[in-house]
Design brief:
By secondary structure, this protein is of the alpha/beta class. Helices cover 40% and strands 15% of the residues. It has helices spanning 15-26, 43-50, 74-95, 127-142, 162-172, 189-202, 220-233, 266-272, 279-292; strands at residues 7-10, 31-34, 57-60, 98-104, 146-151, 154-155, 176-179, 183-184, 187-188, 208-211, 218-219, 243-246.
Length: 298
């Protein structure tokens, strides 16, 4: 009889963590969870939590994600996104466990038209992107049995994200302005969680770096227009408002964003058999998922 894996879900209260928890429960995968009560910056807290527990997989959803604030808090971003990852990697090595970690398209400069492959050299433009890249480097230095997934434009039914922000704007304002010269691909958290749970169930040893996002390339403006269309169709908003396409220069932010950080997902489909749905179909699934949730106000 096959023994169920010991899964530790780190950062379980966040957007992706909550999605993964739901997916594990749906598949009847037993797991243990921690969030801010176990600070990944402090190795002794991780050791205390892990003591006496069987751990075969560590799934790290804990991260510093405040992209603009990281410009003013680079040390904090580094402590969580690099130091915390190193602590988890060292613990995984001690326990001979596999670690699943999530990075970002922000490790790339986004200054080319071709999709980024896993072996393309990172060149982050922001403190956030730099801290995430440092986490990648430390992970690789401490552990060999890891799965590192670079994802982009993550959204889901839990937590703050672009889709929830747009729904609030569509309800509260008479018009919206969204940049149209930053290109990329959204990542629907539910689809990602299903693939991650399947990976754990498979017991795969095909470790390494992978890129994962929904299929298709769009701008934030394109995404906003589609959100409005589907929100109207599903009755989540009551009226249509004009959405103006603007250049990045007209919407300055503290951190510099990559303009064209499209990820190539060929490897994750070929090596791990991940299902990668189109961004529009996944956005439709998001609205269906949201409609099933009681009191689903973003």
């Amino acid at each position: 009889m096959k023994t169920a894996p010991g899964i530790w879900l780190v950062g379980a209260a966040g957007m992706l963590g909550r999605q993964l928890a739901g997916e594990f429960e749906k598949r009847e995968l037993a797991y243990m969870a921690s969030d801010r009560e176990v600070d990944i910056r402090h190795s002794h807290e991780l050791q205390d939590f892990a003591s006496g527990r069987r751990i075969d997989w560590i799934v790290n959803c804990a991260a510093y994600t405040a992209v603009d604030r990281a410009e003013d808090e680079p040390e904090l971003a580094k402590a969580i996104n690099a130091g915390g990852v190193e602590n988890l990697a060292r613990l995984a090595a001690e326990r001979e466990a596999k670690l699943i970690h999530f990075s970002t398209d922000y490790v790339f400069a986004g200054d080319r038209e071709e999709p980024y492959r896993e072996d393309d050299p990172p060149r982050p433009l922001s403190q956030y992107g730099w801290s995430k890249h440092q986490g990648e480097l430390r992970l690789d230095a401490c552990l060999k049995r890891y799965f590192l997934f670079r994802i982009s434009w993550l959204y889901g039914v839990h937590g703050p994200n672009f889709v929830h922000t747009m729904l609030r704007v569509l309800r509260e304002r008479e018009q919206a302005r969204v940049v149209n010269d930053q290109l990329g691909s959204p990542t629907y958290a539910a689809a990602l969680a299903a693939n991650i749970a399947g990976l754990i169930q498979s017991g795969s040893e095909r470790c390494g770096i992978y890129h994962y996002c929904d299929g298709g390339v769009i701008s934030w403006f394109d995404f906003a227009v589609a959100i409005q269309d589907l929100a109207l169709k599903t009755g989540m908003i009551g009226k249509r408002i004009p959405i103006e396409a603007i250049p990045t220069a007209a919407y300055p932010t503290r951190a510099k964003r990559p303009l064209h950080a499209v990820l190539d997902c060929v490897k994750v489909k070929g090596e791990l058999g991940f299902r990668v749905g189109g961004w529009r179909a996944n956005l439709e699934d998001f609205f269906l998922e949201k409609a099933r949730m009681e009191g689903c106000r973003p």
